[in-house]
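Curious: why this fold?
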Amino acid sequence: MDRSFDDLIEEAGAVDVSGWDFSWLDGRATEERPPWGYQRLMGERIARATMSLDIQTGGGEVLAGVPQRAAGAMVATESWPPNIGRAQENLRSKGVVVVADDDRPPLPFADDTFDLVTSRHPVSTHWAEIARVLTPGGTYFSQQVGPDSGHEISDFFLGPQPWGETGRESESARAAAEAAGLVVTDLRSAELTMEFFDVGAMVYVLRKVVWFVPGFTVAGYRDRLQALHERIRAEGSFRARSRRFLIEARKPPLG
């Protein structure tokens, strides 16, 4: 049955958006995954680690889905209170210690503590702090959101935006890592398709991924949501492009 606009936005405006689990979108939206398989590669590195740290873990969903364990302690940080509680629930059985951190330097750890630091889609990457807490020879491994990712969404709701230099370019990450004294050993990029099949799916994403339309509320953007609803009904979906890059960097060993 073709659900009404009001029904769709009311449902999506009320659903819980804490954590970083997007299963609510099953059958309502899709996003291509990068070809490298971040979670699998992350698990391979955790299996070889002694002390691991996952920065900005969200609700811990990605780390919880990794079957491997580090030989020693595993730690994760998160700043948003609803996510902290979710991460503690998701990671308790894995023995991961979740530390509340405001995502600003300094990290609450001593120098040379972790031989592996990971992060999936960090809001920001504080390279000097990562280099500080890594042991000599340790590795930083991260999948990050690339430049102008999903700009079609922002353009639709906010009007044409200036695109170009965003600070999220993969080469900018390389330069920042090297400036912090790390050696980049892998850097890959991918451009992927996002597709939304109803307006409720878009409401859910905009409530959860807040940087697409800063300050988004259903009431504040009701007219644009109505226009999106009509567009999806006419065309079958709304498409956008997402960009991701994978970066791995190593702290040089002593000597």
About this structure: The chain has nine helices and eight strands. The chain has a mean pLDDT of 96. The CA atoms of residues 42 and 141 lie 7 Å apart.
